[in-house]
Structure formats: C-alpha cells, structure tokens
C-alpha cells in the first residue's frame, strides 16, 4: 500500500494525536521498507528485526513530532540510520580494547566482520602511536567513554587541553580511516568511535 502526500500527512497527524489504530496502519505500511533498510546496514536479520521494533517504538514515544514531518519515508530512514550508528557506538565503546564478539557473530558477512576487526585493531595501534598524554586522553574518551570533564579531573589537564588532545587524535584517526579507502567502515566507525 502506498499513500500519497496528503493521505500520509493526515495519517501522521492522527498518530501525532495518539490514535493507536492510525499508528498500527503506519507500521503496517512502512515496516518492511524500514526493515530492509536496516538489514542492508547491519547484515543481520535478527538485528534488523530488533532495530525495526525499536525504531517504531521510539516513533510512537515521540509521536507528537510527526505533525511536523513532510516525508515520513525520509524521516524514518534517517531515524533508522541514526539508530544503527548509536547501537554501533555502544557496542564499540563497551569493548575492552577489542571488537565485541557479538558484533562479529551477528554479522552475516565474514568479510565485513574481518574488516571491522582489522580496522578496530588498527585504530588501537594508531592511538598507541600518539604522544603519551594524547594517547591517555583518547583511551579515556573513546574507549572508556569518559566525559571531557572526567578526563580533566583524572589527568589534571584543563578542559581546553583535553578537548585539544581529542580533536588532534580524531584528526589522526580520520586520516588513517580515509587512507584505508573503506567507505562503509569509515562511515560507521567514524560515527561510532569518533563522534561520541
């Protein structure tokens, strides 16, 4: 079923007002496009199913925002991409200097899984090659997930010095990722590891 712009807008307004029947209709229409979009990003049917459910749950929780949406397909695809990036960030930051096993196991592409692991290991080596203080700050920020304020308190550096070390370190890693010429990994890993 495909809705024209006017019918879609009316449906979104109805959902925004809290109409559960309209929300069910919205899910029925857009579930599979969202699912297949997530599947192309995650390469895992289980993960795609879970993420699609999460995305529609969030849409319902923030349904009031739908009143301002002009194109729901674009809106939900952006929401899907952001959800995948957020999940990747959590998986990477939950590691102890290693790519999570579940990230590799849930990915149906052995080649891509190997790329993730190789790239993550290489990023850690890049961090290890940084000046000692910058290396310390980068590990605290991007691996341990500490805030700039927490890093400043632990290291005795000023907040501006912490920020400088992070910016310099991120530039080094971005250049490294770009030179590996792996666009998909650059998008996901830069979002997950670098833009936290």
Structure, described:
The structure is a single chain. The protein has ten helices and no strands. 22% of the residues are buried. It has two domains: 88 residues, RNA polymerase sigma factor, region 2, helix turn helix motif (Rna Polymerase Sigma Factor, Chain: A), CATH 1.10.1740.10; 86 residues, Winged helix-like DNA-binding domain superfamily/Winged helix DNA-binding domain (Arc Repressor Mutant, subunit A, Orthogonal Bundle), CATH 1.10.10. The longest helix is centred in the N-terminal third of the chain and has 23 residues. It is mainly alpha-helical and 196 residues long. InterPro entries: RNA_pol_sigma-70-like (IPR039425), RNA_pol_sigma-70_dom (IPR014284), RNA_pol_sigma70_r4_t2 (IPR013249), RNA_pol_sigma_r2 (IPR013325), RNA_pol_sigma_r3/r4-like (IPR013324), WH-like_DNA-bd_sf (IPR036388).
| CATH fourth-tier homologous superfamily of the largest domain | RNA polymerase sigma factor, region 2, helix turn helix motif
The structural domain count equals 2
Q: Might you state the CATH topology name of the largest domain? A: Rna Polymerase Sigma Factor, Chain: A
Q: Classify the helix fraction into a percent range.
A: over 70%
- Rg from C-alpha positions? 20 Å
Q: Give a quick account of the main beta sheet: strands, pairing sense, barrel closure.
A: none
Cα end-to-end separation: 38 Å
What is the β-strand count?
Answer: 0
Structural class: mainly alpha
Portion of residues in beta strands equals under 5%
**Can you tell me the overall shape?**
elongated
InterPro entries: RNA_pol_sigma-70-like, RNA_pol_sigma-70_dom, RNA_pol_sigma70_r4_t2, RNA_pol_sigma_r2, RNA_pol_sigma_r3/r4-like, WH-like_DNA-bd_sf
Protein name: RNA polymerase sigma-70 factor
GO biological process, one term: DNA-templated transcription initiation
Family: Belongs to the sigma-70 factor family. ECF subfamily.
């Amino acid at each position: 079923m495909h809705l024209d712009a006017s019918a879609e807008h009316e449906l979104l307004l109805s959902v925004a007002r809290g109409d559960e029947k309209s929300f069910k209709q919205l899910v029925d229409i857009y579930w599979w496009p969202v699912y297949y979009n997530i599947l192309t990003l995650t390469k895992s049917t289980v993960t795609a199913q879970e993420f699609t459910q999460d995305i529609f749950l969030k849409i319902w929780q923030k349904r009031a925002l739908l009143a301002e949406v002009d194109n729901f397909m674009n809106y939900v695809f952006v929401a899907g991409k952001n959800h995948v990036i957020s999940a990747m960030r959590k998986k990477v930051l939950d590691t102890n200097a290693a790519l999570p096993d579940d990230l590799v196991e849930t990915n149906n592409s052995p080649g891509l899984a190997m790329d993730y692991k190789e790239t993550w290991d290489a990023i850690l080596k890049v961090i290890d090659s940084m000046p000692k203080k910058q290396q310390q700050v980068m590990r605290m920020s991007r691996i341990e997930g500490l805030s700039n304020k927490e890093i400043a308190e632990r290291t005795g550096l000023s907040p501006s010095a912490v920020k400088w070390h992070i910016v310099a370190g991120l530039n080094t890693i971005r250049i490294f990722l770009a030179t590996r010429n792996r666009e998909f990994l650059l998008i996901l890993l830069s979002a997950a590891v670098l833009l936290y």
